Amino acid sequence: MTTEVKVPVLGESITEGTLGQWLKKPGDGVKVDEAIASLETDKVAIEVNAPVAGVIGALVVNEGDTVEVGAVIATIEEGAAAAAPAPKAETKDAAPAAAAAQQAPAEPGKTSDALSPSAKRAAGETGVDPSTVTGTGKDGRVTRVDIEGAAAAKPAAPAASATPAPASSGGRKEERVKMTRLRQTVAKRLKEAQNTAAMLTTFNDVDMSAVIEARAKYKDLFEKKHGVRLGFMGFFVKAACQALRDIPAVNGSIEGDEIVYHDYADISVAVSAPNGLVVPVIRDAQDLSVAGIEKTIGDFGKRAKDGTLKMEEMKGGTFTISNGGVFGSLMSTPIINPPQSAVLGLHRIEDRPVVVNGEVVVRPMMYLALSYDHRLIDGREAVTFLVALKNAIEDPTRLLIDL
Prior knowledge:
29% of the residues lie in helices and 25% in strands. It is an alpha+beta fold. The strands form five sheets. Strands 9, 12, 15, 16, 17, 18 and 19 form a seven-stranded mixed sheet that branches. A four-stranded antiparallel sheet has the order 1-8-6-3, with no helix packed on it. A four-stranded antiparallel sheet has the order 5-4-2-7, with no helix packed on it.
């Protein structure tokens, strides 16, 4: 019996997606609910699972094709067994090849056929053989991050000899790669934000000494008790919630000719995923402890890497925090995530000379950037928000006694 595999419901107002990658090929056996393909939507990548057990029949669409909800993308032959390859007659020429195959080392990662388009592109750009890479994706699949990590770990090439190398015969090359649906949506939304909001960015810096000291003192006890590492984001999210309560305009949004103020803080946090940054939302962050915030962010980061974030987890949000410091950024002017009216950019921590009580001392400093919609937020409110955040981070006791 043949069963059709259809595109599942992708979420509210989402009617189509892009077939990002086939995880199975015709003739492969599948179990019920086993992933057979990944779909890219405007917000997140999701997997299409087998509705029945059997063998993959036909793949109706190709990778990169746009498919609508309910469309048939493949067929499964129920109850069939996976086809075994037909035996080949052994010849004298084949014998050495068979012996060589027996001596070949086992492949730690997936072959290039199982790679996503982004991973294939990364392999081509870096020269890394995917079969030598151990995959960290779902079911051991090799991801773009795995390829790039392997490239970074490769030993440096030996120094060139005195004999000049022959001139390269290749000319200048170009490669055209279609933008993923997620990247197209990000580009569209960011441009809309620039066209709509009266964006302005204000800066401040913060001495991270107190937070670094607290983290060093309690990180082991914290991880033992809560099962999660104590990072910096927990402090910043908690401090931001407090500052948003005091400066409600930064937590507001414009809808038509009305201003919407929120008495809750749904904090969007930018986390890295194989296909780019995604922005899941910490709901009611004002009610969470630092441990609760760290657990939520850790879970988001893991599932973003696995591609298992849900649509509803990406919706809403009243304020965004983006930490470019993990990539080494010193300073930036982040772009607002509509319909929000402000975004906080965090940056790398570095030792810099500062004046404290009339003396020049070296302290671990971080630049803070707040981009905001000047239609709703005045400069005074933006600066007041950053100062409140700075005070809370430089003296974390304020977070405990609500100052």
